[in-house]
Specification:
The chain has 344 residues and is mostly helical. It is built from 17 helices and six strands. 61% of the residues lie in helices and 5% in strands. Bound molecules: iron/sulfur cluster. The site of iron/sulfur cluster has 14 residues, from helix 11, helix 15, helix 16 and helix 17.
Length: 344
């Protein structure tokens, strides 16, 4: 019975340490998992949700087949790893993190706090308090808050607009769940493994279907930005990075990654980007070329896209945070502006 409860908990939070260790204990060979079509179909549904929708579908049957729910998460993750598309990875991470938030909201305040401590090592307390007529369920150390929520662009999330008490940010339960969701999303985006695209037959079939779908999406998005590069349509963050590059200012690692991935995605070739980097004070052509080719996916299976606006805000590379809400991604900004500029 204890194990049933654990499986149910792990199925709700399949990315957690507890879920991973439970799956390890169960130690079911992949070939066996492949024969269970409930698991394979659910893994496929998880990825279809990620590609087609903005929110997870309601989980029917979680209580009666928590094992399928738990295992399907790991199959979906292996497929995301094997397909190697950042587009798919981000969308999948978003949908799984939203699902986590839905479950977290239904937990007790104490459980939420315990969860945040266990999984993210947060300093958090669930001693509710009422200050200036407002009720708060949790207080979380401002460093943990900033690390998770720095990418939030709405004013209400800015630290200056939050009530602070001795270095702790006071939050309502829905806010705590939202901040935890952001932490889960980041965790899933970063947790990349190298997985060969070599699965047993049923999982392989899903791999092929999803890989084709993702490729079609990528082609469609690419078509929208292909053709002549319209630098006037570059978002302000990328314009600023280009200016810094041209002036020979040193760029941080993440800034170099962001501008390189952006330029590659709008169609600039590796040689032209190497030329741009020549202005950098620490320029070394072999190293620069290697890094650019890596981001372009020429040295591995993953071709990267630039970070989202939320991430750019969190690393202080966004220069126009108020626009992030409408565009959400520098490439969306570029597509939109490019279309606008092409109108007669
Ligand atoms: S809102 Fe997004 S696209 Fe605009 S400057 Fe900030 S990061 Fe760049």
């Amino acid at each position: 019975m204890q194990e049933d409860i654990s499986i149910y908990e792990a199925a709700k939070y399949p990315w957690s340490v507890m879920a991973r260790s439970l799956l390890k204990q169960l130690d079911v060979p992949l070939a066996e998992v492949d024969k269970n079509l409930r698991i394979v179909d659910r893994a496929k549904q998880r990825l279809m949700d990620a590609i087609e929708t903005h929110s997870p579908r309601p989980k029917r049957g979680l209580s009666d087949d928590a094992y399928a729910e738990l295992t399907s998460f790991f199959i979906a993750k292996a497929l995301v790893d094997a397909i190697g598309s950042m587009y798919l990875r981000r969308r999948w991470a978003t949908i799984e993190a939203k699902s986590t938030e839905d479950f977290l909201i239904k937990e007790s305040d104490g459980k939420l706090a315990q969860f945040a401590k266990q999984e993210f090592d947060w300093q958090i307390s669930s001693n509710g308090s009422r200050i200036a007529g407002r009720t708060y369920s949790h207080s979380i150390h401002f460093t943990n808050y900033l690390a998770a929520a720095a990418g939030f662009h709405e004013r209400e999330w800015k630290l200056v607009n939050k009530r602070l008490n001795n270095g702790f940010v006071m939050l309502r339960k829905t806010e705590t769940a939202r901040v935890l969701r952001a932490a889960v999303e980041k965790l899933l985006i970063r947790d990349i493994k190298k997985v060969p695209a070599d699965f047993p037959p049923n999982i392989q079939r899903v791999y092929e279907e999803i890989a084709v779908l993702v490729q079609k999406r990528a082609d469609r998005l690419k078509q929208e930005i292909e053709g002549e590069i319209v630098s006037e349509a570059f978002p302000p963050c990328m314009q600023a990075l280009l200016t810094d590059m041209r002036q020979g200012k040193p760029l941080s690692h993440i800034a170099r990654f962001a501008i390189t991935a952006f330029l590659l995605n709008v169609g600039m070739d590796v040689d032209s980007i190497v030329e741009l980097f020549m202005q950098a004070p620490d320029f070394r052509e072999d190293l620069a070329r290697y890094q650019i080719e890596h981001i372009a996916g020429k040295r591995g299976s993953t071709a990267y896209t630039p970070p989202s606006c939320a991430y750019m805000i969190s690393v202080r590379l966004c220069v126009d945070p108020d626009k992030a809400g409408t565009r959400r991604h520098p490439l969306n900004y570029y597509r939109y502006r490019r279309k606008q500029l092409s109108k007669p």
